[in-house]
Amino acid sequence: MAIDAPRLSLELPRDPDATCAPMMVAAPTAERPFPTDCGAMEPQGDDDLFGSTGSDRTSGTGEGDEDDTPRNTRQRLNPEEVFQRNIVGILNKRGYNVCDTILAAATDTSDASTASFASNSSSISSVILGLREPNHGQGPLHIAVRRGDCQVIDAILFSDCADDVVNATDNNGNTALHFAAGSWRRPQCATMVRSLLDAGADSQIKNKRGLTPIGVHMLTAKVDNPAVLIMLLESGADPDTEVEGASLLHIAARRDFAAMAGILVAFGASMSALNRDGLMCYEVASSRVKRFMLRSINSAPPFLPITQRSKCMRCSSPLMTTTKVLSNFFRRLLGFHVSEHQCNCYHCGLLFCSKCLKHAPVADVLPNNFTRSRADDLSSVKACLPCENILSERQLKHSASKSFDNSLLGFGPGA
């Protein structure tokens, strides 16, 4: 070897035909590991993200570089295509089974150019919107919510595409919030609902079955946990939403969900809403659910017209006896005022007979937003027996609280 090296240095100048040959061969050999095409700078480890196999790779010879192989096709990808194929690979590795609809449409036609594709996917939002699960058309956010994958949910919602993706629907009209509201079994259900609502999810979008997210939640919930219900109501969901011919309050009453029923009433749900059988929520609810509903009243419900019921809603006795009808007739004849709501409870507004109505002082125990008429004498109004018990409890608490405050200020009996 010590003899061959100087022999080469001496023989090269002697052959005039060989003076340029080494330079012609050496130039491409030195430049081959550093291709000038920006697409060829793609890392070798991303082949599995693109779904390629070992047979797609070229041998590195001059003949392989001239063929139109899948590797050369990938070398011509622009940054948007690289991002889209990478995100497809990442999601499918997590079991999302999404397909690249925009890229597939572009590559199906042989004359699709890179420029035309770049115009369709020039932003991340178009890339995410273009990813769909083939069976039901669900996007990455839908599948992430169904799987409870909070990492992917946060990654999508904290990106610039959140406004375009958060209310996207699948083939059945479901948004990601529909799936989140129906995933009550998952411990991260409330977290996902809160994240979607904070990102701008619309709680009033209906799917093809006519269900809003709050309707899906009430139909699927099997435990009386009002956490998600409160979030949806605070975001603007309608508490009087009807689901399959019944209101949300009917569903809560039928399933004996006292806490949920109370929350719905607190947000303004009507206790007089009718189901398909013509029954009101108050009539089908258990005693426990009734107490929760009556305690949750924070604004004056409308008086139920006497034309809606002819019997007491507590004891089923006739509302207007013959004696009561004659008495009202003569009072009107003599010019006395006859109340139109003499059978209504002042607190809940429902209809009861005279035996089930009692005079109750409510001046200090009604909620701040509870107003009916300024002419009402709040020192003594008629309330049904269940409401009278609730108002009496509030009166005792109010008196105890007032006595405690007076004792702190030195006005109590023990001062």
Structure overview:
Residues 28-79 are annotated as: Disordered. With 415 residues, this protein is mainly alpha-helical. Helix content is 45%, strand content 4%. The chain is built from 21 helices and six strands. The chain has helices at residues 4-14, 21-31, 62-66, 70-75, 79-93, 101-108, 114-120, 124-130, 140-147, 150-157, 162-165, 176-181, 189-198, 213-220, 227-234, 248-254, 258-266, 281-284, 287-295, 322-333, 385-409, and strands at residues 99-100, 131-132, 242-243, 246-247, 357-360, 381-384. Strand 3 (242-243) and strand 4 (246-247) form a beta hairpin. The longest helix has 25 residues, at 385-409. It is elongated and about 95 Å long.
What are the defining features of this structure?
415 residues; mainly alpha; Serine Threonine Protein Phosphatase 5, Tetratricopeptide repeat; Herpes Virus-1; two-stranded antiparallel sheet; elongated; disordered N terminus
